[in-house]
């Protein structure tokens, strides 16, 4: 296949060329530079494919790192130059037009995988070399006692030519012989090394079993052992090694010498530490990241009896506004300053601060008295955010909401603790922000239940779990049933029947209120048609009317008018059989665009009711411009009328509202009527219709039909 000019294959070739030029000078190979480039080209292609693959595969990166060792790129500088080249040019030449930020993140992960693969392959190669040397040494141990001269030349060649350090000592630990590689590793002369004893090489980082294994070996109880060990060089620097010590026996099988093989792993250890740091720390702020935090939290929660933990979960208030108005670079500088301030708040033993991502941070404290300490930590954090932060010449005020979880270790998992802290933080944010709240198990349970209901809402409508109950609207003048309000219910499989206050706000938040409202409207209108067909000409009050609630989200939906028209036409119901109820708060300050759908429906003959009137502090003069024909008076104005005598102030308020409504040609409906005295008082005040438990609780459509039929027949 012939590649297009400057096509993917050309760009891949350029990347391989740059890579080969960077690495070739530090490569132990007999190939020419162009030949070496041809070796790297398939590796470059594997990196390109891994970069653009649908799912990230770390094995590809590890395989490429291992292939470098096979290509004789064993010098640590070869790995360093490779990682620099991949970091600078892989996305540039092989990334195409994809998400650059995502590709760079994947490139970083590939680099980590390459380094891991390189280190593993180099380790396996070295261990294989060590094994070969050890075998040669073991084969020679009998000759040391019987025929040393027969194998001396071969052993000397292996001993002196090996790339790893080799030393021999007697069973008392006195060093007898060392090779040049070991002398170079320690930076000393052979004379200096031979004057030392193995027991002098202790180090504070020695593993607990180091000297126990050594004692077992010189006593002849084991043949060899392998571990990682650190040594001090004469200049005070630390040499890290992979150390293998084997026991050499004489012809009779008695222990005679000990043979040590040392691989210098200092550079590899530093590389691993760097990679570990990058994997566990946030690149922007330098704070521990989510991975490191979960390790610490898991350790804190697994502490012994009597230990406690305290966690502060911080989310900045209004951070999105900073990003949107000043840009992400300014937002990053703000996060760096916040991180520095938080770091200064957690300096005591057992305290740490981490960044989980975005503008979310956590602070952890551990010990026996975290009940007091976590409150003090949260206070320090809030105080640290008081001073404005200067970004690009602007003084930005930063506030935060904190959720606090505190308790004994061993009772909850890290995921449960973080979930509780997250829920509590959002509770603090909902309360206005710039504050901290303590976790409340009951509030957590409600939030978890609320989340469960939210996730179950979409399928609940498909499964037919919703149903409608109807509460009659009664004319106060003659007591006849004039219609009903449709009230949706959810028959939940676990929680039973749920009222609208449990799920309507969730449906509003998720947008499901639009299809749910459309379903309620259609079912209610169909029910109105059935009532009209059943009643026919019975009674003189006319056919029954249905009231359906409209949420603010439905009010702004562009399909409201057309959906209503389609439902009325499909069911064959006249518009005057329908009344749509809109809360007063939804219409406060409403502009003409918001009112336009309601005006169109009102012009068609659909009644519009202003629900919960009196709770929204609306300007009464605005009633003239609203396309409403009914005021539904909030029950708070009439509760005092359940007792005798009624509150005279409430009587005057209701009387004034009724007078105003009638002067604007509006009917008045009262909610929450529960006693006969209340109903009579409202009738005397001139209210038109009422609903409440005094007449009937919400129920199935058959009950309303029975009530209406009883009124019509006397």
UniProtKB/TrEMBL annotation:
Domain (EAL): residue spans on this chain: 450-712
Protein name, per record: Diguanylate cyclase/phosphodiesterase with PAS/PAC sensor
Residue ranges constituting the PAC domain according to the UniProt record: 225-277
Lineage of the species this protein comes from: Bacteria, Bacillati, Actinomycetota, Actinomycetes, Kitasatosporales
PROSITE patterns: EAL, GGDEF, PAC, PAS
Domain GGDEF residue range list: 307-441
Pfam families hit by this protein: EAL, GGDEF, PAS_9
Domain annotation PAS: ranges: 151-221
SMART domains per the UniProt record, alphabetical: EAL (SM00052), GGDEF (SM00267), PAC (SM00086), PAS (SM00091)
InterPro entries xrefs: Biofilm_reg_signaling, EAL_dom, EAL_sf, GGDEF_dom, Nucleotide_cyclase, PAC, PAS, PAS-assoc_C
């Amino acid at each position: 296949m012939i590649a297009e000019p400057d096509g993917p294959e050309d760009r891949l070739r350029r990347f391989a060329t740059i890579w080969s030029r960077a690495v070739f000078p530090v490569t132990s190979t007999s190939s020419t530079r162009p030949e070496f480039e041809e070796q790297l080209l398939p590796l470059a292609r594997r990196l390109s494919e891994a970069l653009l693959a649908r799912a990230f595969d770390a094995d590809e990166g590890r395989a490429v790192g291992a292939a470098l060792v096979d290509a004789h790129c064993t010098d640590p500088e070869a790995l360093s130059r490779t990682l620099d080249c991949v970091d600078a040019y892989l996305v540039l030449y092989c990334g195409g037009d994809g998400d650059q930020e995502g590709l760079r993140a994947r490139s970083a992960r590939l680099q980590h995988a390459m380094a891991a693969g390189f280190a593993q392959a180099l380790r396996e190669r070295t261990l294989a070399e060590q094994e070969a040397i050890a075998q040669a040494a073991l084969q020679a141990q009998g000759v040391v006692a019987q025929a040393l001269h027969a194998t001396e030349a071969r052993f000397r060649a292996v001993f002196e030519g090996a790339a790893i350090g080799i030393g021999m000592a007697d069973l008392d630990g006195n060093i007898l012989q060392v090779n040049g590689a070991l002398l170079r590793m320690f930076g000393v002369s052979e004379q200096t090394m031979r004057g030392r004893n193995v027991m002098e090489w202790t180090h504070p980082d020695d593993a607990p079993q180091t000297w126990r294994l050594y004692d077992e070996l010189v006593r002849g109880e084991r043949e060899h052992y392998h571990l990682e060990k650190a040594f001090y060089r004469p200049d005070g620097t630390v040499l890290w090694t992979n150390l293998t010590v084997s026991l050499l026996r004489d012809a009779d099988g008695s222990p005679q010498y000990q043979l040590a093989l040392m691989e210098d792993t200092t550079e590899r250890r530093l590389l691993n530490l760097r990679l570990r740091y990058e994997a566990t720390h946030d690149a922007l702020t330098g704070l521990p990241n989510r991975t490191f935090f979960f390790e610490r939290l898991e350790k804190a929660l697994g502490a012994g009896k009597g230990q406690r933990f305290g966690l502060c979960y911080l989310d900045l208030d209004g951070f999105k506004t900073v990003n949107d108005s000043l840009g992400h670079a300014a937002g990053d500088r703000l996060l760096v300053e916040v991180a520095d301030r938080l770091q200064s708040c957690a300096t005591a033993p057992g305290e740490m601060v981490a960044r989980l991502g975005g503008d979310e941070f956590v602070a952890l404290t551990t010990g026996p008295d975290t009940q007091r300490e976590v409150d003090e930590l949260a206070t320090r954090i809030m105080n640290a955010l008081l001073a404005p932060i200067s970004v690009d010449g602007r003084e930005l005020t930063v506030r935060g909401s904190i959720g606090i979880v505190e308790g004994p270790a061993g009772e909850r998992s890290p995921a449960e603790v973080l979930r509780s802290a997250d829920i509590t933080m959002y509770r603090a944010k909902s309360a206005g922000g710039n504050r901290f709240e303590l976790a409340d198990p009951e509030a957590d349970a409600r939030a978890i239940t609320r989340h469960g209901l939210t996730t179950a809402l979409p399928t609940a409508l498909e499964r037919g779990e919703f149903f409608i109950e109807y509460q009659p609207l009664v004319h106060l003048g003659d007591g006849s049933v004039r219609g009903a309000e449709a009230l949706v219910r959810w028959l939940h499989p676990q929680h039973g029947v749920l009222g609208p206050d449990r799920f309507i706000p969730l449906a509003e938040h998720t947008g499901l209120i639009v299809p749910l409202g459309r379903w309620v409207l259609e079912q209610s209108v169909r029910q109105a048609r059935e009532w009209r067909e059943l009643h026919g000409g019975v009674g003189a009050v006319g056919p029954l009317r249905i009231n359906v609630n409209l949420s603010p989200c439905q009010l702004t939906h562009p399909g409201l008018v057309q959906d209503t028209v389609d439902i009325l036409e499909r069911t064959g119901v006249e518009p005057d059989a329908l009344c749509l109820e809109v809360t007063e708060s939804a219409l406060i300050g409403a502009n003409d665009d918001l009112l336009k759908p309601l005006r169109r429906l009102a012009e068609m003959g659909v009644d519009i009711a202003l629900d919960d009137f009196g709770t929204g502090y609306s300007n009464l003069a605005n009633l003239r411009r609203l396309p409403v024909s009914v005021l539904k008076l909030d029950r708070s104005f009439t509760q005092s009328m359940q007792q005798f005598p009624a509150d005279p102030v409430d009587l005057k308020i209701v009387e004034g509202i009724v007078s105003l409504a009638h002067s604007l040609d509006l009917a008045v409906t009262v909610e929450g009527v529960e006693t006969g005295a209340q109903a009579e008082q409202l009738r005397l005040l001139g209210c038109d219709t009422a609903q409440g438990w005094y007449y009937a609780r919400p129920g199935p459509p058959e009950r309303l039909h029975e009530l209406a039929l009883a009124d019509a027949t006397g």
